Amino acid sequence: xxxxxxxxxxxxxxxxxxxxxxxxxxxxxxxxxxxxxxxxxxxxxxxxxxxxxxxxxxxxxxxxxxxxxxxxxxxxxxxxxxxxxxxxxxxxxxxxxxxxxxxxxxxxxxxxxxxxxxxxxxxxxxxxxxxxxxxxxxxx
Length: 140
Hints:
mainly alpha
């Protein structure tokens, strides 16, 4: 096993993610919450804090801001009326899709401008490998 490969991969992926995020127009915490609600459906603030691995207070602050922007909505939890269930609003879905498109467009332009066709094909193979690694790491 090549320890340097793991370290180099972690660094390269981290730098790629940070570079892609430079085109974002909303705070990362907001985008993360919208993303979780888009993928998982309605969640509580506690659920979001746990998934984001942040404090409840931090998640609640972002939730309050997203509610004020009309990007999410809150409804009483059907099983526990003391809790609120957060839903992705149409405006939030539109904003999230715009953010994702902007990221994809930026990355697509960089790929097109930086890599020749053979390198692009090689990158496709690498994406498959990264997907397998991600699945393995997510399994625990």
